[in-house]
Amino acid sequence: MKNISNKAFVVSVITVTTMALASCKKSWLDPKPLSVYVPENTLVDIQGFKSALSSISNNLKAEWYGDASPNITEQIFSEESVEGTDDKTGPAQNLDQLIRPDAQLNHTDFNKIGFFWDRQYVSIRAANVVITRIQAPEAKSISDSARNVILGQAYFFRSYSYYRLVNQFGDVPCPMKEITSPKTDFFSVKREVILQRMKSDLEFAVKWVPWVTDKGDINRAACYHQLAKINLALGLFDDAIANCSAVISQGSYKLVTTRFGVDAANAKKNVTWDLHRPDNKAAAANTEVLYLVTDRFGTPGAFSSGLQTMRNATPFISIGAPNLVTPSGKAGVSASQGVEIDNMMLYGRGIGRCRSTPYYYNDIWDDPNDERHDSTSGNWMYMENIRYSNPALKGTDTAYGLRLRLYGPTGRLLCLDTLRDWYPWPQYKTYIPDQINTPWRGGNGDWYVFRLAETYLLRAEAYMWKGDAANAAADVNAVRTRAKCAPYPASKMSIGTILDERARELYYEEPRKTELTRISYLFAKTGQAYNGKTYTLANFSTSNFMVDRILEKNIFYAKNFVTVHGDQFRISPYHVLWPVPQAAILANTDGRINQNLGYTGSGGNVPALDKIPE
Predict the structure, then answer these.
(1) 264, exposed or middle or buried, with CB in 10 Å at 0-12, 13-18, 19+?
(2) What's the Rg (C-alpha) of the chain?
(3) CB 221 within 8 Å of CB 249
(4) Which residues pair with 570 in a beta bridge?
(5) Residues 295 and 342 in one domain
(6) Is residue 523 part of a domain?
(7) Which of 539, 503, 504, 510 is nearest to 524 (CA)?
(8) Looking at the structure, do residues 133 and 25 belong to the same domain, yes or no?
(9) Which residues pair with 403 in a beta bridge?
(10) Residue pLDDT, tens place only, 114-140
(11) Which residues contact 511 (CB under 8 A, 6 or more apart)?
(12) Confidence (pTM)
Protein backbone atom coordinates (compact mmCIF):
# COMPACT_ATOMS: atom_id res chain seq x y z
CA MET A 1 0.00 0.00 0.00
CA LYS A 2 1.32 3.44 -0.94
CA ASN A 3 -0.98 5.87 0.78
CA ILE A 4 1.66 8.58 0.97
CA SER A 5 1.42 11.27 3.62
CA ASN A 6 4.09 13.87 2.90
CA LYS A 7 2.80 16.55 5.24
CA ALA A 8 4.57 19.46 3.60
CA PHE A 9 3.18 18.53 0.22
CA VAL A 10 -0.32 17.89 1.54
CA VAL A 11 -0.28 21.35 3.13
CA SER A 12 0.71 22.91 -0.17
CA VAL A 13 -2.05 21.20 -2.14
CA ILE A 14 -4.81 21.63 0.38
CA THR A 15 -4.01 25.22 1.29
CA VAL A 16 -3.77 26.16 -2.37
CA THR A 17 -7.29 24.77 -2.75
CA THR A 18 -8.99 25.78 0.50
CA MET A 19 -12.17 27.85 0.24
CA ALA A 20 -13.15 30.51 2.78
CA LEU A 21 -16.86 29.89 2.92
CA ALA A 22 -17.18 30.76 6.58
CA SER A 23 -17.17 34.48 5.77
CA CYS A 24 -18.38 36.78 3.02
CA LYS A 25 -14.94 37.77 1.77
CA LYS A 26 -14.03 37.54 -1.92
CA SER A 27 -11.96 34.45 -1.26
CA TRP A 28 -14.12 31.55 -2.36
CA LEU A 29 -11.94 29.28 -4.49
CA ASP A 30 -8.98 31.71 -4.32
CA PRO A 31 -5.47 30.14 -4.23
CA LYS A 32 -3.50 30.56 -1.00
CA PRO A 33 0.04 29.14 -1.26
CA LEU A 34 1.60 29.21 2.20
CA SER A 35 5.02 27.68 1.62
CA VAL A 36 7.69 26.82 -0.91
CA TYR A 37 5.86 23.53 -1.49
CA VAL A 38 3.77 25.02 -4.29
CA PRO A 39 2.72 23.10 -7.43
CA GLU A 40 5.54 24.60 -9.51
CA ASN A 41 8.06 22.89 -7.23
CA THR A 42 6.31 19.65 -6.36
CA LEU A 43 4.19 18.64 -9.37
CA VAL A 44 7.10 17.81 -11.65
CA ASP A 45 7.57 14.05 -11.17
CA ILE A 46 5.53 10.91 -10.54
CA GLN A 47 6.20 10.98 -6.80
CA GLY A 48 4.86 14.52 -6.53
CA PHE A 49 1.71 13.73 -8.47
CA LYS A 50 1.06 10.56 -6.48
CA SER A 51 1.38 12.56 -3.28
CA ALA A 52 -1.12 15.06 -4.66
CA LEU A 53 -3.61 12.28 -5.45
CA SER A 54 -3.09 10.80 -2.01
CA SER A 55 -3.87 14.16 -0.44
CA ILE A 56 -7.18 14.32 -2.33
CA SER A 57 -8.15 10.88 -1.05
CA ASN A 58 -7.16 11.94 2.46
CA ASN A 59 -9.36 15.02 2.12
CA LEU A 60 -12.36 12.90 1.10
CA LYS A 61 -11.94 10.30 3.84
CA ALA A 62 -12.89 12.77 6.56
CA GLU A 63 -16.52 12.01 5.66
CA TRP A 64 -16.44 8.83 7.77
CA TYR A 65 -14.29 9.87 10.75
CA GLY A 66 -14.72 11.70 14.02
CA ASP A 67 -17.53 12.65 16.36
CA ALA A 68 -20.71 13.39 14.37
CA SER A 69 -18.92 12.23 11.20
CA PRO A 70 -20.30 13.92 8.06
CA ASN A 71 -21.70 10.67 6.61
CA ILE A 72 -24.38 10.85 9.32
CA THR A 73 -25.88 13.88 7.56
CA GLU A 74 -26.33 11.70 4.46
CA GLN A 75 -28.01 9.01 6.56
CA ILE A 76 -30.52 11.24 8.36
CA PHE A 77 -31.85 12.66 5.09
CA SER A 78 -33.20 9.20 4.31
CA GLU A 79 -35.58 6.50 5.41
CA GLU A 80 -32.84 4.66 7.34
CA SER A 81 -31.93 7.01 10.20
CA VAL A 82 -32.66 10.17 12.12
CA GLU A 83 -30.54 12.42 14.32
CA GLY A 84 -30.98 10.99 17.82
CA THR A 85 -29.41 13.77 19.90
CA ASP A 86 -32.30 15.11 21.93
CA ASP A 87 -30.86 17.08 24.84
CA LYS A 88 -30.56 20.31 22.85
CA THR A 89 -32.08 22.20 19.93
CA GLY A 90 -29.77 22.32 16.92
CA PRO A 91 -29.31 18.77 15.64
CA ALA A 92 -31.05 18.25 12.30
CA GLN A 93 -34.48 16.99 13.35
CA ASN A 94 -36.88 19.77 12.39
CA LEU A 95 -35.42 20.21 8.93
CA ASP A 96 -37.99 22.88 8.04
CA GLN A 97 -36.64 25.06 10.82
CA LEU A 98 -32.93 24.25 10.86
CA ILE A 99 -31.89 23.61 7.25
CA ARG A 100 -31.54 27.12 5.88
CA PRO A 101 -28.86 28.78 3.69
CA ASP A 102 -27.80 31.12 6.52
CA ALA A 103 -28.01 28.52 9.32
CA GLN A 104 -25.13 26.64 10.93
CA LEU A 105 -24.39 24.01 8.29
CA ASN A 106 -21.08 22.59 9.44
CA HIS A 107 -20.99 21.81 13.13
CA THR A 108 -20.99 18.72 15.34
CA ASP A 109 -24.17 19.81 17.12
CA PHE A 110 -26.07 20.76 13.96
CA ASN A 111 -25.30 19.04 10.64
CA LYS A 112 -22.48 18.69 8.12
CA ILE A 113 -24.09 19.94 4.91
CA GLY A 114 -21.44 22.64 4.67
CA PHE A 115 -18.70 20.05 5.03
CA PHE A 116 -19.72 18.48 1.73
CA TRP A 117 -19.83 21.82 -0.07
CA ASP A 118 -16.43 22.84 1.30
CA ARG A 119 -14.53 19.57 1.07
CA GLN A 120 -15.74 18.51 -2.35
CA TYR A 121 -14.68 21.80 -3.87
CA VAL A 122 -11.33 21.43 -2.11
CA SER A 123 -10.97 18.06 -3.85
CA ILE A 124 -12.07 19.53 -7.18
CA ARG A 125 -9.55 22.35 -6.85
CA ALA A 126 -6.78 19.90 -6.02
CA ALA A 127 -7.78 17.60 -8.90
CA ASN A 128 -7.81 20.56 -11.29
CA VAL A 129 -4.29 21.45 -10.21
CA VAL A 130 -3.13 17.89 -10.95
CA ILE A 131 -4.96 17.83 -14.30
CA THR A 132 -3.42 21.13 -15.35
CA ARG A 133 0.10 20.41 -14.12
CA ILE A 134 0.41 16.86 -15.46
CA GLN A 135 0.04 18.32 -18.95
CA ALA A 136 2.44 21.24 -18.32
CA PRO A 137 6.04 21.43 -19.64
CA GLU A 138 7.42 20.97 -16.12
CA ALA A 139 6.11 17.37 -16.18
CA LYS A 140 7.70 16.53 -19.53
CA SER A 141 9.94 13.83 -18.00
CA ILE A 142 6.88 11.67 -17.23
CA SER A 143 6.03 9.12 -19.92
CA ASP A 144 2.74 9.36 -21.82
CA SER A 145 1.37 6.18 -20.27
CA ALA A 146 2.23 7.27 -16.72
CA ARG A 147 0.79 10.71 -17.43
CA ASN A 148 -2.48 9.18 -18.60
CA VAL A 149 -2.75 7.04 -15.45
CA ILE A 150 -2.32 10.11 -13.24
CA LEU A 151 -4.74 12.09 -15.38
CA GLY A 152 -7.32 9.28 -15.18
CA GLN A 153 -7.01 9.05 -11.40
CA ALA A 154 -7.43 12.82 -11.08
CA TYR A 155 -10.49 12.61 -13.32
CA PHE A 156 -11.89 10.00 -10.93
CA PHE A 157 -11.57 12.29 -7.93
CA ARG A 158 -13.07 15.24 -9.75
CA SER A 159 -15.95 13.10 -11.04
CA TYR A 160 -16.55 11.62 -7.60
CA SER A 161 -16.90 15.07 -6.06
CA TYR A 162 -19.09 16.49 -8.79
CA TYR A 163 -21.35 13.42 -8.68
CA ARG A 164 -21.89 14.02 -4.99
CA LEU A 165 -22.41 17.78 -5.40
CA VAL A 166 -25.02 17.54 -8.17
CA ASN A 167 -27.01 14.98 -6.18
CA GLN A 168 -26.74 16.98 -2.98
CA PHE A 169 -27.16 20.54 -4.31
CA GLY A 170 -28.34 20.19 -7.94
CA ASP A 171 -26.94 22.82 -10.33
CA VAL A 172 -23.58 24.04 -9.01
CA PRO A 173 -20.52 26.00 -10.18
CA CYS A 174 -18.19 23.84 -12.26
CA PRO A 175 -14.58 25.05 -12.40
CA MET A 176 -12.60 22.68 -14.62
CA LYS A 177 -9.10 24.10 -14.54
CA GLU A 178 -6.56 25.39 -12.08
CA ILE A 179 -7.49 28.82 -10.73
CA THR A 180 -4.42 31.01 -10.24
CA SER A 181 -6.02 34.38 -9.51
CA PRO A 182 -9.00 35.64 -7.50
CA LYS A 183 -12.31 34.74 -9.11
CA THR A 184 -15.73 35.94 -7.96
CA ASP A 185 -17.80 35.41 -11.09
CA PHE A 186 -18.98 31.80 -10.85
CA PHE A 187 -22.33 30.72 -12.26
CA SER A 188 -24.31 27.58 -11.59
CA VAL A 189 -24.09 24.96 -14.35
CA LYS A 190 -26.88 22.54 -15.16
CA ARG A 191 -26.54 19.24 -13.32
CA GLU A 192 -26.87 17.14 -16.48
CA VAL A 193 -24.19 19.15 -18.29
CA ILE A 194 -21.75 18.47 -15.46
CA LEU A 195 -22.60 14.77 -15.47
CA GLN A 196 -22.03 14.53 -19.22
CA ARG A 197 -18.53 15.97 -18.81
CA MET A 198 -17.78 13.59 -15.93
CA LYS A 199 -18.87 10.70 -18.14
CA SER A 200 -16.38 11.77 -20.80
CA ASP A 201 -13.58 12.10 -18.26
CA LEU A 202 -14.22 8.68 -16.75
CA GLU A 203 -14.38 7.05 -20.17
CA PHE A 204 -10.81 8.24 -20.56
CA ALA A 205 -9.91 6.99 -17.09
CA VAL A 206 -11.13 3.42 -17.67
CA LYS A 207 -8.82 3.15 -20.66
CA TRP A 208 -5.68 4.07 -18.75
CA VAL A 209 -5.98 3.48 -15.01
CA PRO A 210 -4.79 -0.10 -14.28
CA TRP A 211 -7.06 -2.78 -12.84
CA VAL A 212 -4.72 -3.53 -9.98
CA THR A 213 -3.11 -0.82 -7.86
CA ASP A 214 -2.00 -0.57 -4.25
CA LYS A 215 -4.90 -0.74 -1.79
CA GLY A 216 -6.08 2.79 -1.16
CA ASP A 217 -5.13 3.97 -4.68
CA ILE A 218 -7.63 4.41 -7.49
CA ASN A 219 -7.92 1.44 -9.86
CA ARG A 220 -9.90 0.81 -13.03
CA ALA A 221 -12.66 -0.99 -11.13
CA ALA A 222 -13.33 2.13 -9.04
CA CYS A 223 -13.41 4.23 -12.21
CA TYR A 224 -15.92 1.86 -13.84
CA HIS A 225 -18.02 1.83 -10.67
CA GLN A 226 -18.13 5.62 -10.57
CA LEU A 227 -18.85 5.74 -14.31
CA ALA A 228 -21.81 3.40 -13.75
CA LYS A 229 -23.20 5.86 -11.21
CA ILE A 230 -22.75 8.73 -13.65
CA ASN A 231 -24.49 6.79 -16.42
CA LEU A 232 -27.32 5.83 -14.10
CA ALA A 233 -27.73 9.48 -13.17
CA LEU A 234 -27.93 10.34 -16.87
CA GLY A 235 -30.49 7.61 -17.52
CA LEU A 236 -28.03 5.70 -19.75
CA PHE A 237 -28.92 2.29 -18.39
CA ASP A 238 -27.21 0.14 -21.02
CA ASP A 239 -23.98 2.04 -20.46
CA ALA A 240 -24.30 1.57 -16.70
CA ILE A 241 -24.88 -2.16 -17.16
CA ALA A 242 -21.77 -2.40 -19.35
CA ASN A 243 -19.70 -0.50 -16.75
CA CYS A 244 -20.78 -2.79 -13.92
CA SER A 245 -20.31 -5.89 -16.05
CA ALA A 246 -16.74 -4.85 -16.83
CA VAL A 247 -15.94 -5.01 -13.12
CA ILE A 248 -17.99 -8.08 -12.26
CA SER A 249 -16.55 -10.12 -15.12
CA GLN A 250 -12.99 -8.91 -14.74
CA GLY A 251 -11.87 -11.75 -12.50
CA SER A 252 -9.77 -9.94 -9.92
CA TYR A 253 -12.87 -8.79 -8.09
CA LYS A 254 -15.29 -11.27 -6.54
CA LEU A 255 -17.81 -11.23 -3.73
CA VAL A 256 -16.16 -12.65 -0.63
CA THR A 257 -17.91 -15.90 0.25
CA THR A 258 -15.38 -17.74 2.42
CA ARG A 259 -13.98 -16.93 5.85
CA PHE A 260 -10.81 -14.84 5.93
CA GLY A 261 -8.70 -12.53 8.02
CA VAL A 262 -8.19 -11.81 11.69
CA ASP A 263 -11.16 -13.73 13.10
CA ALA A 264 -11.29 -16.54 10.54
CA ALA A 265 -10.61 -19.16 13.23
CA ASN A 266 -13.54 -18.01 15.35
CA ALA A 267 -16.26 -20.50 14.47
CA LYS A 268 -18.95 -18.28 16.03
CA LYS A 269 -18.38 -15.62 13.37
CA ASN A 270 -19.08 -15.58 9.64
CA VAL A 271 -18.16 -13.93 6.34
CA THR A 272 -20.29 -10.86 7.08
CA TRP A 273 -18.28 -10.24 10.24
CA ASP A 274 -14.97 -10.86 8.44
CA LEU A 275 -15.81 -8.45 5.65
CA HIS A 276 -16.16 -5.53 8.06
CA ARG A 277 -13.16 -6.08 10.32
CA PRO A 278 -10.93 -3.01 9.95
CA ASP A 279 -7.82 -5.19 9.57
CA ASN A 280 -9.48 -7.16 6.76
CA LYS A 281 -10.62 -4.36 4.50
CA ALA A 282 -7.30 -3.92 2.73
CA ALA A 283 -6.25 -7.58 3.06
CA ALA A 284 -5.13 -9.42 -0.06
CA ALA A 285 -7.88 -12.00 0.51
CA ASN A 286 -10.52 -9.29 0.29
CA THR A 287 -11.46 -9.49 -3.38
CA GLU A 288 -14.52 -7.30 -2.92
CA VAL A 289 -12.97 -3.92 -2.20
CA LEU A 290 -12.80 -1.54 -5.16
CA TYR A 291 -11.81 1.63 -3.34
CA LEU A 292 -11.19 2.28 0.34
CA VAL A 293 -9.64 4.98 2.45
CA THR A 294 -6.93 3.92 4.85
CA ASP A 295 -6.48 5.09 8.42
CA ARG A 296 -4.10 3.17 10.68
CA PHE A 297 -3.30 3.99 14.27
CA GLY A 298 0.18 5.43 14.64
CA THR A 299 0.69 6.24 10.96
CA PRO A 300 1.18 9.77 9.64
CA GLY A 301 -2.13 11.38 8.73
CA ALA A 302 -4.27 9.05 10.85
CA PHE A 303 -7.34 10.71 12.36
CA SER A 304 -6.64 11.53 15.98
CA SER A 305 -10.26 10.82 16.89
CA GLY A 306 -10.76 7.60 14.90
CA LEU A 307 -13.96 6.47 13.20
CA GLN A 308 -16.12 6.83 16.33
CA THR A 309 -18.73 4.44 14.93
CA MET A 310 -19.30 3.06 18.44
CA ARG A 311 -20.22 6.58 19.54
CA ASN A 312 -22.11 7.89 16.54
CA ALA A 313 -24.31 4.95 15.56
CA THR A 314 -25.03 3.05 18.77
CA PRO A 315 -27.49 3.81 21.60
CA PHE A 316 -26.80 6.01 24.59
CA ILE A 317 -26.08 3.22 27.08
CA SER A 318 -23.34 4.93 29.08
CA ILE A 319 -25.66 6.77 31.46
CA GLY A 320 -27.20 4.59 34.17
CA ALA A 321 -29.92 6.79 35.60
CA PRO A 322 -32.39 7.97 34.65
CA ASN A 323 -31.68 6.70 31.13
CA LEU A 324 -31.45 2.97 31.88
CA VAL A 325 -32.63 1.65 35.24
CA THR A 326 -33.33 -1.76 36.74
CA PRO A 327 -36.89 -2.84 37.56
CA SER A 328 -36.24 -1.58 41.12
CA GLY A 329 -35.30 1.85 39.76
CA LYS A 330 -31.54 1.80 40.29
CA ALA A 331 -28.93 2.96 37.78
CA GLY A 332 -28.45 -0.06 35.55
CA VAL A 333 -25.28 0.43 33.53
CA SER A 334 -21.78 1.73 34.00
CA ALA A 335 -19.86 4.12 31.75
CA SER A 336 -16.58 2.76 33.09
CA GLN A 337 -14.29 0.52 31.10
CA GLY A 338 -12.60 -2.36 32.90
CA VAL A 339 -15.51 -3.26 35.16
CA GLU A 340 -16.66 -6.89 35.46
CA ILE A 341 -19.37 -6.53 32.81
CA ASP A 342 -17.58 -4.27 30.35
CA ASN A 343 -20.28 -2.90 28.07
CA MET A 344 -18.03 -0.03 27.01
CA MET A 345 -15.51 -2.40 25.46
CA LEU A 346 -18.16 -4.63 23.93
CA TYR A 347 -20.39 -1.93 22.46
CA GLY A 348 -18.74 1.43 23.07
CA ARG A 349 -19.86 4.71 24.57
CA GLY A 350 -22.70 5.33 22.16
CA ILE A 351 -24.68 8.56 22.16
CA GLY A 352 -27.16 7.80 19.36
CA ARG A 353 -26.31 10.56 16.89
CA CYS A 354 -27.26 8.30 13.98
CA ARG A 355 -30.41 6.60 15.25
CA SER A 356 -31.65 3.86 12.93
CA THR A 357 -35.37 3.64 12.15
CA PRO A 358 -37.81 0.70 12.37
CA TYR A 359 -37.62 0.59 8.57
CA TYR A 360 -33.94 -0.30 8.82
CA TYR A 361 -33.78 -2.48 11.92
CA ASN A 362 -37.08 -4.29 11.49
CA ASP A 363 -39.14 -3.83 8.33
CA ILE A 364 -36.63 -4.82 5.65
CA TRP A 365 -35.43 -8.07 7.24
CA ASP A 366 -37.47 -10.74 5.48
CA ASP A 367 -35.28 -13.81 5.89
CA PRO A 368 -34.47 -15.31 9.31
CA ASN A 369 -31.23 -16.76 7.94
CA ASP A 370 -29.79 -13.38 6.95
CA GLU A 371 -26.32 -13.16 8.52
CA ARG A 372 -26.47 -9.37 8.45
CA HIS A 373 -29.34 -9.46 10.96
CA ASP A 374 -28.14 -12.35 13.09
CA SER A 375 -27.75 -11.69 16.80
CA THR A 376 -26.58 -15.22 17.65
CA SER A 377 -23.22 -14.65 15.96
CA GLY A 378 -22.97 -11.13 17.36
CA ASN A 379 -23.42 -9.43 13.99
CA TRP A 380 -26.60 -7.75 15.13
CA MET A 381 -27.23 -6.35 18.57
CA TYR A 382 -30.45 -5.79 20.46
CA MET A 383 -30.72 -3.82 23.68
CA GLU A 384 -31.82 -7.03 25.36
CA ASN A 385 -28.37 -8.48 24.59
CA ILE A 386 -26.81 -5.93 26.95
CA ARG A 387 -26.51 -6.76 30.65
CA TYR A 388 -26.98 -4.59 33.71
CA SER A 389 -23.39 -3.69 34.51
CA ASN A 390 -23.35 -1.10 37.30
CA PRO A 391 -20.96 -2.54 39.92
CA ALA A 392 -23.06 -0.92 42.67
CA LEU A 393 -25.85 -3.38 41.84
CA LYS A 394 -23.77 -6.41 42.75
CA GLY A 395 -25.16 -7.91 45.93
CA THR A 396 -27.84 -5.21 46.20
CA ASP A 397 -30.04 -5.75 43.15
CA THR A 398 -30.95 -9.07 41.55
CA ALA A 399 -30.88 -7.43 38.11
CA TYR A 400 -27.06 -7.31 38.09
CA GLY A 401 -25.77 -9.40 35.19
CA LEU A 402 -29.25 -9.94 33.73
CA ARG A 403 -30.29 -8.63 30.34
CA LEU A 404 -31.72 -5.14 30.01
CA ARG A 405 -35.49 -4.80 30.04
CA LEU A 406 -37.57 -2.02 28.53
CA TYR A 407 -40.49 -2.40 30.96
CA GLY A 408 -40.71 -3.25 34.64
CA PRO A 409 -43.18 -5.75 36.11
CA THR A 410 -45.84 -3.04 36.52
CA GLY A 411 -45.38 -1.83 32.95
CA ARG A 412 -43.21 1.12 33.96
CA LEU A 413 -40.76 2.20 31.28
CA LEU A 414 -37.20 1.47 32.41
CA CYS A 415 -35.70 3.71 29.76
CA LEU A 416 -35.86 7.50 29.84
CA ASP A 417 -35.85 7.99 26.10
CA THR A 418 -36.55 5.33 23.48
CA LEU A 419 -35.30 7.62 20.71
CA ARG A 420 -31.72 7.86 21.90
CA ASP A 421 -31.38 5.05 24.43
CA TRP A 422 -33.15 2.04 22.95
CA TYR A 423 -32.76 0.64 19.42
CA PRO A 424 -30.96 -2.28 17.71
CA TRP A 425 -27.85 -1.79 15.59
CA PRO A 426 -25.43 -3.63 13.22
CA GLN A 427 -22.58 -4.48 15.57
CA TYR A 428 -20.53 -5.97 12.73
CA LYS A 429 -20.23 -2.50 11.18
CA THR A 430 -19.89 -0.34 14.28
CA TYR A 431 -17.48 -2.47 16.33
CA ILE A 432 -14.02 -0.98 15.78
CA PRO A 433 -11.43 -1.66 18.54
CA ASP A 434 -10.30 1.69 19.89
CA GLN A 435 -6.64 2.56 20.38
CA ILE A 436 -7.42 6.19 21.24
CA ASN A 437 -10.42 6.66 23.51
CA THR A 438 -11.46 5.25 26.88
CA PRO A 439 -14.29 4.32 27.05
CA TRP A 440 -14.21 3.04 23.49
CA ARG A 441 -15.80 5.10 20.74
CA GLY A 442 -14.43 3.28 17.70
CA GLY A 443 -10.78 3.74 16.77
CA ASN A 444 -8.70 4.00 13.62
CA GLY A 445 -9.55 1.69 10.76
CA ASP A 446 -9.88 1.55 6.99
CA TRP A 447 -13.28 2.30 5.48
CA TYR A 448 -15.00 1.15 2.29
CA VAL A 449 -15.92 3.74 -0.34
CA PHE A 450 -16.83 1.26 -3.12
CA ARG A 451 -17.11 -2.50 -2.96
CA LEU A 452 -18.37 -5.11 -5.38
CA ALA A 453 -21.67 -5.75 -3.56
CA GLU A 454 -22.75 -2.25 -4.57
CA THR A 455 -21.64 -2.86 -8.15
CA TYR A 456 -24.10 -5.76 -8.34
CA LEU A 457 -26.85 -3.60 -6.87
CA LEU A 458 -26.12 -0.75 -9.29
CA ARG A 459 -26.42 -3.17 -12.21
CA ALA A 460 -29.63 -4.56 -10.73
CA GLU A 461 -31.04 -1.05 -10.62
CA ALA A 462 -30.06 -0.35 -14.23
CA TYR A 463 -31.76 -3.57 -15.32
CA MET A 464 -34.87 -2.63 -13.35
CA TRP A 465 -35.16 0.78 -15.01
CA LYS A 466 -35.16 -1.11 -18.31
CA GLY A 467 -37.88 -3.46 -17.08
CA ASP A 468 -35.57 -6.49 -16.99
CA ALA A 469 -36.69 -7.95 -13.67
CA ALA A 470 -35.04 -11.34 -14.25
CA ASN A 471 -31.52 -9.94 -14.54
CA ALA A 472 -32.21 -7.47 -11.74
CA ALA A 473 -33.19 -10.36 -9.48
CA ALA A 474 -30.05 -12.31 -10.40
CA ASP A 475 -27.83 -9.42 -9.29
CA VAL A 476 -29.74 -8.75 -6.08
CA ASN A 477 -29.61 -12.46 -5.30
CA ALA A 478 -25.83 -12.54 -5.70
CA VAL A 479 -25.68 -10.24 -2.68
CA ARG A 480 -28.55 -11.87 -0.78
CA THR A 481 -27.36 -15.45 -1.08
CA ARG A 482 -23.89 -14.48 0.13
CA ALA A 483 -25.66 -13.45 3.35
CA LYS A 484 -27.46 -16.86 3.42
CA CYS A 485 -30.82 -15.43 2.31
CA ALA A 486 -33.23 -17.20 -0.02
CA PRO A 487 -33.17 -15.69 -3.52
CA TYR A 488 -35.94 -13.40 -4.71
CA PRO A 489 -38.11 -14.28 -7.70
CA ALA A 490 -38.20 -11.78 -10.57
CA SER A 491 -41.76 -10.87 -9.59
CA LYS A 492 -40.41 -9.36 -6.36
CA MET A 493 -38.21 -6.83 -8.14
CA SER A 494 -38.76 -3.08 -8.06
CA ILE A 495 -36.66 0.00 -7.41
CA GLY A 496 -37.98 -0.07 -3.85
CA THR A 497 -36.88 -3.69 -3.39
CA ILE A 498 -33.39 -2.81 -4.61
CA LEU A 499 -33.24 0.13 -2.20
CA ASP A 500 -34.20 -2.24 0.61
CA GLU A 501 -31.31 -4.51 -0.34
CA ARG A 502 -28.96 -1.54 -0.49
CA ALA A 503 -30.08 -0.69 3.06
CA ARG A 504 -29.40 -4.22 4.28
CA GLU A 505 -25.98 -4.37 2.66
CA LEU A 506 -24.71 -0.78 2.65
CA TYR A 507 -26.13 0.87 5.77
CA TYR A 508 -23.74 3.53 7.12
CA GLU A 509 -21.49 2.97 4.08
CA GLU A 510 -23.33 4.43 1.11
CA PRO A 511 -24.22 8.14 0.84
CA ARG A 512 -27.93 7.36 1.13
CA LYS A 513 -29.25 10.87 0.49
CA THR A 514 -27.08 11.23 -2.62
CA GLU A 515 -28.44 7.97 -4.04
CA LEU A 516 -32.07 8.76 -3.17
CA THR A 517 -31.79 12.14 -4.89
CA ARG A 518 -30.21 10.54 -7.96
CA ILE A 519 -33.09 8.06 -8.12
CA SER A 520 -35.58 10.90 -7.60
CA TYR A 521 -34.24 12.63 -10.69
CA LEU A 522 -34.66 9.38 -12.63
CA PHE A 523 -38.28 8.95 -11.57
CA ALA A 524 -38.91 12.54 -12.67
CA LYS A 525 -37.00 12.11 -15.94
CA THR A 526 -38.44 8.74 -16.99
CA GLY A 527 -42.00 9.29 -15.81
CA GLN A 528 -42.05 5.83 -14.24
CA ALA A 529 -44.41 5.53 -11.28
CA TYR A 530 -43.65 4.77 -7.65
CA ASN A 531 -46.63 3.55 -5.63
CA GLY A 532 -48.82 4.72 -8.49
CA LYS A 533 -47.45 8.28 -8.42
CA THR A 534 -45.42 9.95 -11.16
CA TYR A 535 -43.08 12.93 -10.94
CA THR A 536 -41.76 15.70 -13.18
CA LEU A 537 -38.56 17.72 -13.25
CA ALA A 538 -40.61 20.92 -13.40
CA ASN A 539 -42.05 20.22 -9.94
CA PHE A 540 -38.98 18.51 -8.49
CA SER A 541 -38.76 20.66 -5.36
CA THR A 542 -42.45 20.33 -4.50
CA SER A 543 -43.02 16.65 -5.29
CA ASN A 544 -40.32 14.00 -5.54
CA PHE A 545 -39.61 10.35 -4.87
CA MET A 546 -37.04 10.87 -2.12
CA VAL A 547 -39.23 12.71 0.34
CA ASP A 548 -42.28 10.59 -0.51
CA ARG A 549 -40.28 7.46 0.29
CA ILE A 550 -38.97 8.97 3.53
CA LEU A 551 -42.49 9.84 4.62
CA GLU A 552 -43.60 6.33 3.67
CA LYS A 553 -40.80 4.47 5.49
CA ASN A 554 -39.38 6.74 8.22
CA ILE A 555 -41.92 6.84 11.03
CA PHE A 556 -40.19 9.73 12.83
CA TYR A 557 -40.75 12.14 9.94
CA ALA A 558 -44.07 10.58 8.94
CA LYS A 559 -45.55 11.01 12.44
CA ASN A 560 -43.69 14.26 13.26
CA PHE A 561 -42.24 12.57 16.34
CA VAL A 562 -41.46 14.99 19.19
CA THR A 563 -38.28 14.49 21.24
CA VAL A 564 -38.03 14.71 25.04
CA HIS A 565 -36.48 18.12 24.46
CA GLY A 566 -39.59 19.22 22.58
CA ASP A 567 -38.14 19.26 19.07
CA GLN A 568 -40.25 17.90 16.23
CA PHE A 569 -39.09 15.79 13.29
CA ARG A 570 -40.15 17.47 10.05
CA ILE A 571 -39.10 17.18 6.40
CA SER A 572 -40.44 18.88 3.26
CA PRO A 573 -40.21 18.06 -0.47
CA TYR A 574 -37.62 20.78 -1.15
CA HIS A 575 -35.14 18.96 1.11
CA VAL A 576 -34.48 16.67 -1.86
CA LEU A 577 -31.70 19.22 -2.47
CA TRP A 578 -29.66 20.88 0.25
CA PRO A 579 -29.31 24.66 0.48
CA VAL A 580 -26.22 26.22 -1.00
CA PRO A 581 -24.46 27.93 1.95
CA GLN A 582 -25.33 31.60 1.88
CA ALA A 583 -21.71 32.62 2.47
CA ALA A 584 -20.69 31.06 -0.86
CA ILE A 585 -23.40 32.99 -2.70
CA LEU A 586 -22.54 36.31 -1.05
CA ALA A 587 -18.80 35.90 -1.69
CA ASN A 588 -19.44 35.41 -5.41
CA THR A 589 -20.07 39.12 -6.06
CA ASP A 590 -19.63 39.15 -9.85
CA GLY A 591 -21.63 36.05 -10.79
CA ARG A 592 -24.63 34.10 -9.58
CA ILE A 593 -24.64 30.83 -7.71
CA ASN A 594 -28.28 29.82 -7.63
CA GLN A 595 -30.12 28.87 -4.46
CA ASN A 596 -32.33 25.79 -4.55
CA LEU A 597 -36.08 26.28 -4.68
CA GLY A 598 -37.78 26.25 -1.29
CA TYR A 599 -34.95 28.16 0.40
CA THR A 600 -34.66 31.89 1.01
CA GLY A 601 -32.81 33.59 -1.83
CA SER A 602 -33.98 31.41 -4.70
CA GLY A 603 -36.00 34.32 -6.07
CA GLY A 604 -32.77 35.84 -7.41
CA ASN A 605 -31.85 32.79 -9.50
CA VAL A 606 -30.86 33.10 -13.14
CA PRO A 607 -30.92 30.30 -15.73
CA ALA A 608 -28.13 27.80 -15.04
CA LEU A 609 -25.48 27.55 -17.74
CA ASP A 610 -25.93 24.84 -20.34
CA LYS A 611 -22.21 24.84 -21.08
CA ILE A 612 -19.24 24.52 -18.72
CA PRO A 613 -17.03 27.64 -18.79
CA GLU A 614 -13.53 26.57 -19.80
Answers:
(1) middle
(2) 24
(3) no
(4) 94
(5) no
(6) no
(7) 539
(8) yes
(9) 387
(10) 999 999 999 999 999 999 999 999 898
(11) 71, 74, 164
(12) 0.94
